[in-house]
Amino acid sequence: MRTREIIDVAMKAGEILILSGAEVYRVEDTLARIFRSYDVEAECFVLLSGIFITAKGEDDEVISVVKRIKGHINDLQKIEKVNSFSRSLMVKAVSYEEAMEILNAIESTPRYRFSTRLAASGVAAFVYSLLFKSSVKEAVAALFISLMVFTVKENISRVGFFQFFEYFVSGMISGAMSIFAVKLFPEMNLYKIIIGSIMILVPGVAMTNGIKDALYGDTVSSIYRLAEAVFIAVAVASGVGIMLSIGIRWV
């Protein structure tokens, strides 16, 4: 396999990892493993917004490639598959065509169905409400509100609005519906319902990955992840806060 083809394979693998929410150190380790599998001398520098690769090709030719990457979601299934693929190359290197076929298949792997993710969001809201010592009635209210929040958030995401707006609207819906629930059932605690219903919006993965990147010395990516987590938290809090300031007088 020619060096340029190996770079294409590594770049494809790295792109899938970043778009799936992988940590920077994991992406760099995967790319390094791919190059070692084919005995190619290369240096890789990864940011959440791009991948930089420089490799020594045939006749000591130096090849540099840059890939701009925009956006990401959390898809642990694809991350696990790319990791397994890179490790399998250490055992047996495959041809360029076969490698790209495998990576294209991983890239096109469908996410869990909407109904499955919707059900998971409802269960998460219900369980976290109970964890924060809510009553069963309050947990059920948080469950239904979480289902509504998740549905709206997914639809906004498909339209393509920027992330801050997506979480801001989700926070507003959570606050408004929680106030409405307490209006119907005054014995319920407003704040416990809100806590349960916004748990699916908490940027736990971004915070965890940001801390892990910092521990591995990837300061730039760590700051990016933690800043993203802060902006999401501010967006959700702003949405909930606005609805509380408007509707609290009617509770």
Describe the fold and architecture.
The model has no long low-confidence stretch (mean pLDDT 88). The protein has 251 residues and is mostly helical. The protein contains ten helices and three strands, in the order H-H-E-E-E-H-H-H-H-H-H-H-H. GO terms for molecular function: transmembrane transporter activity. Pfam families: ThrE.
Q: Strand arrangement, largest sheet? A: 1-2-3
Overall outline: elongated
The mean pLDDT is 88
Structural class: mainly alpha
How many helices in DSSP terms?
10
Protein name: Threonine/serine exporter-like N-terminal domain-containing protein
GO cellular component, one term: plasma membrane
Domain Threonine/serine exporter-like N-terminal: 8-246
Keywords: Cell membrane, Membrane, Transmembrane, Transmembrane helix
Task: Put the structure in a nutshell.
GO terms for molecular function: transmembrane transporter activity. The chain has helices at 3-19, 24-37, 76-91, 96-107, 114-131, 136-159, 163-184, 190-197, 204-215, 219-247, and strands at 42-47, 50-56, 62-68.
Q: Which key phrases capture this entry?
A:
single chain; 251 residues; 2 domains; 3-stranded antiparallel β-sheet; 8% strand; elongated
Topology:
Layout: H1 3-19, H2 24-37, E1 42-47, E2 50-56, E3 62-68, H3 76-91, H4 96-107, H5 114-131, H6 136-159, H7 163-184, H8 190-197, H9 204-215, H10 219-247
Antiparallel strand pairs: 1-2, 2-3
Helix pairs in contact: 1-2, 1-4, 2-3, 3-4, 5-6, 5-8, 6-7, 6-8, 7-8, 7-10, 9-10
